[in-house]
Every structure is written in C-alpha cells, then in structure tokens.
Design brief:
The complex is a heterotetramer, with two copies of chain A (256 residues) and two copies of chain B (407 residues). With 256 residues, chain A is of the alpha/beta class. Helix content of chain A is 50%, strand content 14%. A nine-stranded parallel β-sheet of chain A has the order 5-4-3-2-1-9-8-7-6. Chain A is globular, with a radius of gyration of 17 Å. By secondary structure, chain B is α/β, with parallel strands linked by helices. Chain B is 46% helix and 17% strand. Chain B has 15 helices and 14 strands. Chain B has a six-stranded mixed β-sheet with strand order 3-4-14-9-10-13, sandwiched between helices. A four-stranded parallel β-sheet of chain B has the order 7-6-5-8, with helices on both faces. A two-stranded antiparallel ribbon of chain B has the order 1-2. In chain B, strand 11 and strand 12 form a beta hairpin. In chain B, helix 4 crosses helix 5. The chains are: A alpha/beta (256), B alpha/beta (407). At the B-C interface, helix 2, strand 3, helix 5, helix 7 and helix 12 of B face helix 2, strand 3, helix 5, helix 7 and helix 12 of C. Chains A, D: The alpha subunit is responsible for the aldol cleavage of indoleglycerol phosphate to indole and glyceraldehyde 3-phosphate. Chains A, D: GO terms for molecular function: tryptophan synthase activity.
Chain lengths: 256, 407, 407, 256
C-alpha cells in the first residue's frame, strides 16, 4: 500500500494525522527507541528518521545540535539503516528517511534507495534537493516504489507549485513559514491561505510542518490540513523532561 | 549553473524564488554595460583601482630564475580583493531593492569588506562568524562593529567558516524578502560561483593589460592562492585564452597525509559531494560528512572549492599545488625582507610556490603572483605564525595595563 | 632656506658638508625631470598612485551642508602618505651613493614606511623610536623588524618623537659618510622642510586634477591635519595659486588652556624658537625649553611645525584650527559608520573640523579632506581611544593563552 | 685681556692648557661648585658652564642625562647666570657659556650677551649655531668684547675652514672626530692631520675636544694643540667616585 493510500486510510478514523521526527543516534539509539515507543503509544501515524549530517543548514538550533552530537557519538549511515529496520519491524507507523542529499550522493542513489527499501522505509525527505536536481533519484524511486516527499513553501509562485505538485508523491510537506525548523509559527490566515494554494495544485494529502508545538496548533490545522508535522517541540520535551514529558507532550497534542 | 559535473543549486525550496530573482538580476547586470561601468567607477573612486603591478626585482635576483611580478590587490580599500566582490554585490543588492545584507566570514576579511560596503551603501548588515573565529579575530570584529554591522558568533559545529555559512543560510531562508546574502567566495549555489568570479574578473582584466604595458608580453605562469577560489578565478579569467600556465595554491597545512590541511585538489583527500548549496570537491569522510580542515591562513581553511576551478583542474587547465604552513612562514619572511611587502598569510601560499619554482625557470621567463591581501592588520595571526616572543610579551604587558585601569 | 623668518639650518658644524651635499643633490633632482618621472613611476607601480578621491555622499547628506570629498592617501602602500616622502628620499639616497638610512618615528608610520623603502632599495636601516612609543606601538615595531630594520628604543627625555629625532641626529653626526637621514616630516633643517614638501606635492598635484575631473571645479576649502605638516603641505601645494581656503587642523588634545595639547598655531601657547635644526613656532616655556605635548594621535604630538606653514599662517594664507581628542573620537565613529572609511587618528583631526564646519556651508560648496592615513593597522590606538571593553577582554584572553603556551 | 691673550699667556708656562666642563645644576649647583674647586686646584685654565637645554642633540648620553636632570631640578637661565657670576668671582680660570642657541634666542641676543658679560663670562660655545646664522650675535659680541668660540671639524673642507677661521675669536675648538661628546677618540695621525689643517687656517690657539679622557691623550696632544678640552670623562669620574675620584682624575690628567 502506497503512502498516499495509507494516509487516506488513517484519515478515515482521524481528522488530523501526526508525523513525528527523530534524529538518529541523538542522544542515543536506545533513547530514540524509547521516544518512538511513546510516539507509537500516542498513535503517531508517520515518523521521519533524520540521518545526521555535518552541515544541516535547513535545521534550527535544536536539531543542529542533535545532528552534531549524534555524529560525535560516531553514528554512521549504516547504523541509521539498521535502526530503521528495527523500527519498521517493531512499530505500526510508516517511516521516512529525512536528511541531506550528500548522504544519498555519497552512498550512491541506487544503493541508498535499495537500503532504504530493505530497511522498510517508504520514502524520504531531502530539504536541500530541489526537483531540478532530483531527476535520476525520483526516477529510480518510482521503479523501487519509494516516495520522494516534496516541500511546498510560502514563497512559491503558482507556477512553481504546479511543478512541485507534478513531482510530489505520497503527501506534500507544506512549510508553514519562512525560516528553519524549530521556531514557533503563528497559526492563522497565512497558513490557511498557503494550504489552500497548495490544495489547488495537488490532490495529495497535505502535511503542515515548521513550528507546530501544541494542541491549539492542532486545532487550527484540523479541517485545513491532513497531517501535522511535529519535530522540534517533541525533542524539546524529551530534552527537558525525558520520557515522562514526551508522553505528556503527545498526549496533550493528540487529545481530541 | 554547471561546469562539467560541478556547481548547481542545492538549496531549500523556500529559496527557489529568491535565487531565481538573483539569477535574473545577475543576468541583467551582466548584459547591461552601464552596470559594469558603474562598478568600475566605484572601484576606482572608493577602492583605488586599478591596483598596480609591482616588479619584485630583489626577490627575482635573490632566487636567480624567473622575473616575478605581483598584482597588488592588497592596496585595495579594506586590504584585499574581497572588496571587488562586495561592492559588486552591493550594487546588485540596490537593483534587487533590498535593504539588508548578511555575510559569513572566516578570517574576517570578507566580513570587514561587507561591513564597509554596507556602511557605504546605507544597508543594514549582519555578519555571521564562527565563535572560534570571533575569539581569535577580534580586530576584524572590532572594525565591523564600528562600521555599524552586527556580528553574530556562531556556536555550531567547528564554530568556523563553514558553520558561519550554514548560519547565514538560516538567516537567508527566514529573511530573503528584504535581505541579500553577500557570499564571500566563489562557492555556494549558482549563480554565486559565477557571479563572484565575474566581479573578481576585474583583477585579471587589469593584470593582462598591465603586464603587456609593463613587460611587453604575457607572463609564463600565474600563481594565486585558493581557498574558495575567488582571487584565483579573478586573475585567471584574464588569461584563459592565452598560453599562460595557471597555478592554484592551496593550504597544505601540515602536509600531504597529515589530515591537517585544506588542500582539495593538490592532495588526494577530497571527493565530490554536495554541501553548502553546491556540488564540488569537498574534504569529507566516506559518510559524506565534512572533515575538519586546517591552515595557517584562516581564509584558505575551507572544505570546498569553486566548481569552475574544479572543472578546469579536471581538464588540466589549472595546475594545483599546496604550500605547507612552514613553507608559508619562510616565504613571508623572505618577501618582507627583500621587497617590503607584507602579503596576507593566504596570499603567501602563492608566493611560497612561486618562490619554489622560480629558480628552475629562465631569467627571461615571467611569473605573476596575485597578492590577494595584506597582513598588516592581521598582526595577531602573523605574530603567532612566526611565534614572536616580543609580541607575546607586549600583549601580556597590555593585558596587565588594562587590568590595572579597571581597578 | 627661509620662509619669512622661519626655517634655516641650525646644526652642528660637523654636518655642514653633509647638509650642503644633500642640498646640492636635492637641487639637481628638482631640476632633473627624469628624477620626478622615476619617482612618479615608482609610486604608481609600488604604492598604487594615483590615490583616488572619494565623494562622501552619506556624510555630506548627514551633515546637510557642503559636499565632502576625501583624498585617499590611506590607500598607499604602508597605509599613509609617509611613503611618498620615503620613496623620494630613497631615490635621493641612491643618488648620494649612501648605503644606509636612519629615521625617527613617533607613532611608527614613518618608521614603517622607511623600513619598507629600505627593504625595497636594499639599504641598511636603523629606526629611532622613543622607548615609550616602542612599548605602546609594538605592532609597527614588529613589522619594521620583520622588514630587516633595527629599531632602537630611545631612553632620553620624554622618550617620544622629539627624543627620537635628537637620537637620530646623534647617529647622523657620527655616520654621515654612508648614512642618509630620512627625516619623516616637513620639519628640521633646510632642505628637509622643502624637500619633504616637494615629495608630498604629488598629493596636491593629483588632487587638483582629480577634483576638476570629478566635480568640474576646485574645492572651496581643504582640510588637512598638521603634526609636522607634511601631508598638509602635500595637498595645499596643489592649490596655492587658487582661490581655495586652506585649513590646517592641529591636535587640540584636552583643549585650549589645558596645556595637554600639541596646537602650535591654533592656540596661543607656542612661540618662535630654534630646535631640532630649524626655526619655527615651538611649544616651549619662557626658558626656551620644550614643553611636554599631548594628543590622542601620536603622529600629531610634536613640538614644532613646518616653517613654510608658519609663514603661510602669518600671512593669513592658511587658517589653523585644533580638534580636541573628544571631537576626534566622535568624528572617527561617524566616518566609519557613514562611509566605511577608517581614517588614522591623525587624519581624523581634519575630518573633525570639516564635520564641524560643513553644516554651515552651502550644499553647492565643496570640501576636500586629505585622508593622510588609515587606522586599521593601529587597532590598539583606536580601541584604546574608544575605550572598547571587548577589545580589552580579548587582550587579556590572549595574554592568558600566551602565558599558558609557555608553560 | 682677551681670551686669545689669556691663553697665550698661560701657554708660556704650560705646554698644554686644559678646558673643563660643568653642566649647570647637575647634580646640583653645590656639587658644581665642589667640582670647580677641584678643577681650580688642578690648574684648569678655562671652564665651560653648560646651560641645560631640553633638546641637547649634539651631546652624548652622559650630558644628555645631565641636561635632563638639571631641568627636572628646576634650573633656570637666571640660576645659571647667577652661578656663573659666583664662579667668575671665586676662581682664577676664565669661564665660557656653553649651550644651545634657543636659550640665547629666547632671552634675546643682546640681553643674553649683557647678562653673560655681567656674570663675568668671556664668551660662549653654541654648537647648533652655524656661522651663517650667527651674524647679528657675533656683531653684538664684538661690540661687547665677548668671544664666540667656533668649532672646526674633520668634515670641513679647506674652504669652509677658512670661513670658520674668519669668524673665530679667542681660540678654535677642534672637534677631534665625528659624533657626539663622550665617546673615546683614538688619538693618532687623523687628529694630528686635522689639527695641522686647522692651524693652516688660523693663528688662534687650538683646543682639541671630544673624547679626551686620560693622560696618554694629553701626551699625544702636547705639541700638536694648545689646549685639551675635557668634558664627559670628568663628569664620569664625579658620578663614579665623587670629589675624590674627580680629584684623582685631574691629577692624573695634568701630571706632566
């Protein structure tokens, strides 16, 4: 079953899905597994596993530090794939690889996709790979049944949104505002208008990310988007209060 | 935006419109002769261009081989070739209608130049600089702040140049509406490598005409140091159609095999990758993560290289060498004593390789070195490189004096 | 050798032949057009002349009065107009057949320039510098030593500039056979005031032509700082036959009546006397002994003044003003922020007075300031003048680092 | 009796006269007086009283410091003249003012000469006043019967020596070598040749100075010159061993 169908199926029971995020190897793979347990308990629908990279230029400070610490711990690409295999074997949610294109390029596109597939991943998010540069990777992905997640942003023209829509698979990652991950976004007419513009160009489910941090954000998105994408806020909860606070965070977030 | 397989644009989607707008503006400027004329006039009146070419009669005689000439980018306002690019991008920023500039800086030369340009053009200015560099390059920070720039110490990663670039990118993806990113070297996403090279081409244009006028012929070889590659591209471009050997001089640090260097092409440690918005040779590990680099010259201490230079190297059109820290120290001392010039440590890499090769050349042959900058405002760097004890005693005395003032 | 009652030669008899030889050689050089041509060519190829004139559009708009232009002597090799004189005297030294040069220096600019020239011309070089100045101007000492000069710390008197001049004289009376004394400013015995002024006249020659070319007319007023007077004489000479008001800007220190200043003509504290080989206005007491002087700018902190300027002042052909240390601090900050220029503290005295007077002039009037030098290599001086705490913390950290290295 | 006659008269009894030197007010006028006592005892023929100046550029390190310390002690021109009056009243030797021209200029040439004469001085030595600049001072001096002492040096041409000779009065101060006061001079053919050259241009007595420091110098000069001029060596003796050593110094020096 493809990602799009999976999302549509889950949407039958829930008004707003949740995609969560984990930086592989930070603070440790054991901790990652504990976090994912909590996410699974909370009914998270999709998880991005970020492969750490030395130059995470699209990330905000919390993730930058997480990437850095993970690499200092010695995390390798191989470790990340092995962890992904363990995760997909254990949990019901679907898993995406998230990271930077050099990780893919260095391994080789085909090798990367084969390993992703073997580890049970369903697709990937590469924020520094524009569609112009993604031709061969997307083609290979289609052959292997893996889905490139495309980002639509507030600065895109309609013409550009149409191009992005044509390349998008699974769902569209709607970037709620300018900037990097992790800062608070004021949910309001701007976000609604952006979602509406994206909707006009694609029938794929729309996930909204960047700055989703609490229940009120979720309530705002309900009805506008199909999925809320939660990253930094969850990591912050874990860093501040460990398993207990992360559990509380998700329980608050998904409470209907 | 590709040169062979190198170059491209690898940026978050949010910047797509901004980069397109920049590309379009750059194309217009490039095809508008009044733009270049305005640029040249400003460089003349504000920065003292054309910079001269100086014959190193003493150094040449001392080495007993080729006649050495030096293109004097060190005489520019702010002390290096960086001002060429920065003034160019300032004019472009005006055309873009943006009121704020951001820039990364390593050694501080580019930040210094950008802060200067921002003061001159009346633009708001934020400079990103690794915290390690802020701590060791306080003099440049001092000047930038005094020219009204905000200097942000970046605490991520190695806390040096590449981390400053990442942080500048993070600012740009947030503030692109009113902000132009004045990238400092001929790296990063298209059109930066080509655009920075274009502004720097004023160096090569002048140099070619000056060599013909002063010596009646073209040089046999041109040496330029290569960090990102902007000064090398600047001078090399004047001679692409000529029978002139072009030599890029990288930072050999502690030497080949030491891992403490920043030589991407002269040594065998780099491989092709994608980072900081473009594809080129990077000093990276087998996981695609960037290595720590080292050079006596902060301005050469960079993981990647201009994609056009990578392509020219691949085609054997530019030869690459590396000068070690020790070779640089000796070359600097020799140049100061024989010619009264104080090349920046970056530049001195080019002097070191020219000094090495000149003796085996004929006395009727000609070498041209691009002196990309001067070191006289980087005394901490040079005094430390030369391990000058009197300097260290002076600093201790000053510290004691400042301590006492406070009491 | 007199200008009105000022000038002359007041030297020990032992130097009579040497000074006559110098005078004769100077006359020959002055009447030999190939000498000036060689000088100009060397200044072009080595030092980057002609230096440009830059329009201070922002500063002018900010002040709301006259349009301000700046002659950019700061862009010279070694960072100030001092190189003009030094290269000229280097050529003259060659004609004299002497193999060694000596010079005095206060702030270090002239010593730095002389050491540079000596390296370029292959001359032995000794620089006399007051011990107090050596201690506070280590950066310049560092460069001089690296260019092969011997720097002698003078322990007599105030241990500053005038004492360095006395000590240089003592060297000269001993070694005149092979040694030329490269006096740094347009003071001292004839022909130095006239000779230094002649070499510096290249500034005014260029400036006059450039103003006509850039603005279609001559400036209404020209401001130049005056220590000994060489940069002021340099630019003023281009305009003696024109209807242009010339303003010399002295070091007002703590202000009139404070005794902590170095204003010979702008204040009433100086009187005519004979010292250091010539007759002019000196800051001296009623016994004929020289006073201690003070300025935020070491290069203006001098007891005497060029005799030609004294004569021009007497005839009301040059107006004299003094800028206080505080006015200089404010003018420096304003200039850095509005124009991206970092004038030397000496030069900033001229900026301060131009900034004071520009608002009351018409928008169609033109001011020209001679920017005699840049401050970017004198960071200690400027950071201390601006009392920058981050700088002081940086120095303390550096000192701790150096201390640790030794252990 | 003019200075020239005085010297010639003294020469009747002595093969080589001695001129000594004191920096007024250093270390104190009392000390100066004690030094002069010793000099008088030793039979010194002539004394230069140096008026301290802030820029003593023709002096060597010992005298430079002496000038500086004297000014720090507050010595004024008036003090110096008063001291000179006391000295000329007390001792048989003749006294010259020695100093720099600014002291004269600042007081006014005529005023200076009148005070010099009133204090009993017979002339002056101004090493920074070349004959070209000395016209009015020399003319006034002639009127007042005061004598300008002219220096002849190893770098002077014959033509110049003739000019100097024309201006000289009393005696000629022959500078034995290049340089400032206080360094040792190697007595030898150079000095003899210089004295001979000077002799060829003037009939005035010749005093030789700069670096005369011991009895062997005196012996060398005997027969060549009329007078030895002793400065730094005496001050050094005083600084090193006070009155006793100064007495010893002169006694060694003048021992026939």
């Amino acid at each position: 079953m493809g990602l799009q169908s999976y999302i549509e199926q889950r949407k039958a029971d829930k008004s707003l899905l949740v995609m969560a995020h984990v930086v592989c190897g930070y603070p440790s793979f054991e901790a990652n597994m504990a976090e994912l347990e909590i996410m699974a308990e909370a009914g998270v629908d999709l998880v991005e596993l970020q492969f750490p990279f030395s130059e995470p230029s699209a990330d905000g400070p919390l993730f930058v530090r997480a990437n850095e610490m993970s690499l200092q711990n010695g995390t390798t690409v191989n470790d990340c794939f092995e962890f992904m295999a363990a995760v997909t074997a254990r949990f019901p949610f679907k898993v995406l690889m998230m990271g930077y294109y050099n990780t893919v390029f260095k391994l080789g596109e085909e090798q990367f996709l084969r390993r992703l597939k073997a580890a049970g991943g369903v697709g990937y998010i590469l924020p520094d790979l524009p569609i112009e540069e993604a031709g061969s990777l997307h083609a290979l992905s289609a052959e292997l049944g893996l889905e490139p997640i495309i980002l639509m942003t507030p600065t895109n023209s309609d013409e550009r949104l149409a191009q992005l829509a044509a390349a998008a698979r699974g769902f569209v990652y709607v970037v709620a505002r300018k900037g990097v991950t992790g800062s608070k976004t004021q949910m309001g007419d701007d976000v609604a208008a952006l979602v509406a513009r994206c909707r006009a160009h694609t029938d794929l489910p729309l996930g909204v990310g960047f700055g989703i941090s609490d229940r009120s954000d979720m309530e705002y998105l309900r009805g506008h988007a199909d999925m809320a994408i939660v990253g930094t806020a969850a990591l912050r909860a874990w860093e501040q209060g460990g398993a207990e606070q992360l559990r509380q965070f998700f329980s608050d977030l998904v409470a209907a | 935006g590709y040169y062979g397989q190198y170059g491209g644009v690898f940026l978050p989607e949010i910047l797509q419109a901004t980069v397109n707008e920049l590309l379009e503006c750059f194309r217009q400027c490039k095809s508008d002769p009044t733009f270049w004329a305005e640029f040249v006039e400003l460089m003349q009146n504000y920065s003292g261009r054309p910079t001269p070419i100086t014959h190193m009669a003493n150094l040449s005689a001392h080495l007993g081989g080729a006649q050495i000439y030096v293109k004097r980018e060190d005489l520019n306002h702010t002390g290096s070739h960086k001002i060429n690019n920065v003034i160019g991008q300032g004019l472009l920023c005006k055309r873009l209608g943006k009121s704020r500039v951001i820039a990364e800086t390593g050694a501080g030369q580019h930040g210094f130049a950008t802060a200067t340009m921002a003061a001159k053009f009346g633009l708001d200015c934020t400079i990103y600089m690794g915290a390690v560099d802020v701590a060791r390059q306080r003099p440049n920070v001092f000047w930038m702040e005094n020219m009204g720039a905000q200097v942000v110490a970046v605490q991520d990663g190695q806390k040096t140049l590449k981390d400053a670039i990442n942080e500048a990118m993070r600012d740009w993806v947030t503030n692109m509406a009113d902000t132009h990113y004045v990238l400092g070297t001929a790296c990063g996403p298209h059109p930066f490598p080509e655009m920075v090279s274009w502004f720097q081409s004023i160096v090569g244009q002048e140099a070619r005409a000056q060599m013909l006028e002063q010596t009646g012929r073209l040089p046999d070889r041109i040496y330029a140091c290569v960090g990102g590659g902007s000064n090398a591209m600047g001078i090399f471009q004047g001679f692409f159609d000529d029978d002139v050997e072009l030599i890029g001089c990288e930072a050999g640090g502690h030497g080949a095999g030491s891992s403490l260097h920043a030589a991407r092409l002269a040594y065998n440690d780099a491989s092709v990758g994608i980072a900081q918005g473009f594809k080129t040779y990077f000093l990276q590990n087998d996981q695609g993560n960037m290595n720590e680099t080292h050079s006596i010259a902060a301005g050469l201490d960079y993981i990647g290289i201009n994609p056009i230079l990578a392509y020219l190297w691949e085609q054997d059109k530019v030869r690459f060498l590396a000068a070690t820290d020790d070779e640089v120290r000796e070359a600097l001392k020799l140049t100061m004593r024989t010619e009264g010039l104080i090349p920046a440590l970056e530049t001195t890499h080019a002097f070191a390789k020219a000094i090495e090769e000149a003796p085996s050349m004929g006395k009727d042959e000609i070498i041209l070195i691009n002196q990309s900058g001067r070191a006289d405002k980087d005394i901490f760097t040079v005094a430390e490189a030369l391990d000058d004890n009197k300097w260290k005693e002076f600093i201790k005395t000053k510290a004691a004096q400042y301590q006492q003032e406070r009491q």
